[in-house]
Fold this protein.
Amino acid sequence: MALREILHYPDPRLREVADPVDEVTDEIRTLIEDMAETMYDAPGVGLAATQLGIKKRIFVIDLAGDDEPSDLRVFINPELSDAAGTQTWDEGCLSFPGGNAEIKRAATIRVRALDANGQAFELEADGLMAVAIQHENDHLNGILMIDKLNPLKKRLLGRKMSKAQAASV
Ligand code: NI
């Protein structure tokens, strides 16, 4: 396993649309292990392959608390449907270090995907799991949380990010 570099906004690779995974090979499983390790190291609760500059439709999520055993969920070629209701969370993103924003999303969602063994599964999610699935699935389509903000908040977050980049150089 290896830690990989997480791309930060406004890296143009975050805007690329990821391609479906043809087959869940050992190479894909190694990528998934690296994604999980990189997410835990950050630390974060979700990470999409797009955030590592890899154009594959894969994301990982782990919402377990600090004192709970890990609960890694792997989603390959996810398809979302049956979005219903609305909820608003104060979201963060590993590609926007230090920047978070309140984002409105569906309250419940259904997702079909393949797991790390290539097995199809289906999940109905609500609460934070529904938020995380929608956030990570957006990454696979080149959509970022900043896109969901009104012009004023977009400018504030964008300015915060360019300052963060200047400071980290
Ligand atoms: Ni994100």
Summary: The CA atoms of residues 108 and 159 lie 32 Å apart. The mean pLDDT is 95.
